[in-house]
Every structure is written in structure tokens, then in C-alpha cells.
Amino acid sequence: MSELHTKTLSEIAALLQAGDVKVVEVVEHCLARIEATEPKVRALITVMGDEALKQAEALDAAGPDPSKPLWGVPMVLKDLLTTKGVRTTCGSRILENFVPFYDATAVARLKEAGAVFIGKANMDEFAMGSSTENSAFFMTANPWDVERVPGGSSGGSGATVAAGQCFGALGTDTGGSIRTPSSFCGIVGLKPTYGRISRFGLIAYGSSLDQIGPMTRSVEDAARLLQVMAGHDPKDSTSVDVEVPDYLAALGREDLKGVRIGLPEEYWGEGLDAEVKEACRAAVAEMEKLGAVTVPVKLALTEYAIATYYIIAMAEASSNLSRFDGVRFGYRNKKAEELIDMYTASRTEGFGDEVQRRIIMGTYVLSSGYYDAYYNKAAKVRRLLRQDFDKAFEQCDLIAGPVCPTTAFVTGDKADPLQMYLMDIFTISANLAGIPAMSLPVGLGRDSHMPVGLQLMGPAFSEQAMLSVAERLERVLPPLSMPEL
Ligand code: GLN
Predict the structure, then answer these.
(1) Is 335 within a domain?
(2) Strands of 293-297's sheet in order across
(3) Of the candidates 14, 105, 183, 393, which lies 20 to 30 Å from 407 by C-alpha distance?
(4) Alpha helices in 301-435, H assignment, sequence order
(5) What is the pLDDT, as a whole number, of residue 270?
(6) Ligand 1: which of 353, 356, 428 to mutate, most ligand atoms within 8 Å of CB?
């Protein structure tokens, strides 16, 4: 097998534009790579081989198009982004046979830019989880060590990119679901500012938290995908009409002089594995060598973030998931005779345990007697948490810390849901505050030999600065080779 799959998205896009490789050749290569690695990794719920090859032939026949920045580039989508005519399961039995009749806006924009979709990626059911163990269909393995989880909920997207099955994938992030799998799989993952990318066609989990974002093998690749997807969409009223800067133009900076990096003590202390701390600390030291200065900052409410997040996310989920009732979408129990029994049976059989747990808890925190005690209080803490970030960003340009307290854990290790929720301690605050955050691979952990991700967070709409700092740092870090499979 040639080494085409080890190229970055930006490299393959350039080769395709120059006519040095044909789209069919690249797509066939990816499909062969999928066939060779899927038995071990299991990243994909649906492989779109025939559609992709047909599209590739049509693109080759028309010839390269410089106005299309992703012309001919094979990509994978998390299976909760609607794809016209292609099954979209959300990792759930209840949507096992759901075939949408429209593309999500982010998907349509990538397609318009010339991307070729080759698969839909596995995920925790309805994006609820941090390990992809909650998929209704199968678990995905971490390409670096198949005994371990790839992270979640966009674990299929993380694994497919790390395994070289495609050149980039989309994930979604409600409380860390892009950053955690990116950290665990050793790739770059960006959760943009809430409202930066349209959520139209993203099957909702927590609507005030969800964002779509790129998962790639380089910072430049992430910038390229963000460039294509960002911007207002009349179909999503929460997408913001803020000018989209030139993300690529900001890359290639010489140094990090004048950049102030905030280090929150709450992210660097107790509960953080020594090997993660060491790898992240070393990366920060590299930033300092490039001229950045570090400043201590306080995010004092971090200890309440998990409770706050899980109240809000579950409340929103219970309301969003009420549309899956066996009537309008997906799976229906055919034996029930009364309507109410049909609802109950369809939802009981269609949803997995974690999803049911969250619907029940979410309904509880929204119920009239408890609304003020839980949901309202969480909304207030969320506001305070946002203010903490505002204050911190008066002292620094970006915040740096770990993405997760540990590297990828062994499958089955976090069977207790609470233990799993605790993995999100460093990622959920960015969603509560609506700010952008990314994971950058900074090396392998000393003990586990698994990838470690450094998290960068910035003020709303600071993606350009964040990507430019990350790209500068990326150039001084030793590159991770692709895992052996
Ligand atoms: N692990 C978090 C949860 O289960 C985040 C998931 C996500 O970002 N979709 O809710």
C-alpha cells in the first residue's frame, strides 16, 4: 500500500488540485485503508463506497477546480449530521433506519467545496458519553492501542482520522466530544465558538451547547475546514452573523512574542495524571521559548462545572429527544395497541440505558417542583462561570491546560456513569461559556505511551488567534507518526 493516507488534508488537497493524483485513486486508497483497518478499529457505521466512487469519477471527469478548496478530498462525518439519502443513526437503535432528505448546512458547505464523503462515523448514542462505548451498534477501538477507548462521543471520527482512513472528519462537541477523542487519538480537534458554524442538520443533544467542528491531522487542516463551514446560516437562528476572518492567512507566524497564556490553577492541580501534566507542561514551556508569557489565572467555579453541565445538558436532551416517539422518526414498536403504549415501548426499546437515564434526570430537573432548585440554579452558575472566563481573558489571550485528566483508558474501565462524567472536568466549561477550545497533540504519555492533548481556550470568536498559536507550537513539537495497525 502506498503512503497516500499519511498525508494531511492540506497536502492531499494540493496534490489533487495539481492533478498529481486522481480523485478516484485517492478514494480507492481510502476505501482499501478502511478495509484493512476496520476489523481492528471499527470507526464507521456506514461506508459510502459506491456513492464516493461515483462522485470521484464525476470530479475527475470535470477536472480540478481551484475555486473549491476541498476538491476531491475524502472525509468522514459523525453519524448525527444529516446526509441527504444516506442513513443517519445517531448511534441509536431508534434511528437505525433513518434516511434524511436534506444535508446539514456544514455538510452542504463541505460538499460545495468539493469534499467527497466516504463514511459516517460511530459515536456514543445521541452524543452522550466520553468513550464511544455507548453506541447502540458496536464499540470503536483506539488506533494507538485497540484495548483502549478512542474517547467520545465523536470517537469514530477520532479513530478514522488517526487510522488514516480519511483526511479529516467532522465531530460535534457539547461538553468535550470533539476534544476528548482528539486528545485520546492524537489528532487536532477544534470546537468553535457557539454560533460560529450552523447547527442546521445536527441532530440536537443540548442545543445551547452543541457545536460542529473539524477533527484533522494538522492545525492547518482544521483551519481549512473551519474556513469552509463558518458563517451565518438563515436556517439556524443561533448561527451568528459575525464576519469570518481568513484563518489560513494567520498561520505561519514566526514566534509567540506578546502572547499571554493563562494557566488556571484549577486545571493543573489535583486529579490530573502526572504523565498528562508533564506532557502539557512541556508544551507550555515550548510556547515560552517562542516568546509567550504565562500568567496564573483563576477559574474558581471549575469544581461546579460538572454538576452545572449535566443538569443543563440533560434538561435540554430530555426536551430534544421527545421528538423520537415512534410516530415521526425511526423505530416503532408494532405490537402496542394503544398510542401511549406505543410511545412507551418504542422509546424503551429504541433508546439505550445512558440515554434513558438522561431523559429521566432531565425531565426531573425541569419538573415544576424542582425547576428552581436545579435548572434555574444551574443557569445562574453558568452565567457566573462565563464571568470567570471574561475576567481571566482580561489577563491573558488564551488559556492552556489539559484536555482530559488521563490518556485513553482501557475499555470497560469506567463502567460507573459518574466516573465517566468526571472525565469531562476540563472540557465542559468552554461549552457552558460558549467559547472556542481546541485539542492539540503534544506527545505520548510517559507511562501509557498514549497521545496527550493540550487544550487551548480563547474568548468568543478568537479562533484565528488560537489556530495561529497552535500552528506555531505544532511546528516545534515532534510530529506523531501514524499508529501501527
Ligand atoms: N461527555 C459529555 C456528555 O456525555 C460530552 C458529550 C458531548 O460533547 N457530546 O454529555
Answers:
(1) no
(2) 44-47, 116-121, 74-78, 168-173, 211-216, 188-191, 437-444, 451-457, 398-402, 260-264, 293-297
(3) 393
(4) 302-320, 339-350, 353-366, 377-395, 417-422, 428-433
(5) 86
(6) 428
Write the pLDDT tens digit of every residue in 367-393: 989 999 999 999 999 999 999 999 999
Confidence of residue 1 (pLDDT cuts 50, 70, 90): low
For the full predicted model, state whether its pTM sits above 0.85. Answer: yes
CATH of the domain at 47: 3.90.1300.10
CA 211 to centroid of ligand 1, rounded, Å: 11
Q: Which residues have C-beta atoms less than 6 Å from ligand 1?
A: 127-130, 153, 173-177, 205, 313, 424
The residues annotated with a catalytic role in the active site are 78, 153, 177
Q: Which domain holds residue 113?
A: 4-254+435-476
Span from the CA of 310 to the centroid of ligand 1 (angstroms):
9
For residue 166, being part of any structural domain is answered with yes
In a domain, 84, yes or no: yes
248-277 pLDDT, tens digit per residue, is 999 999 999 999 999 999 999 988 999 999
52 CA distance to ligand 1 middle (Å): 30
CB neighbours (10 Å) of residue 221?
24
Q: Which of 282, 251, 272 is nearest to 443 (CA)?
A: 282
Does residue 328 lie in a domain region? no
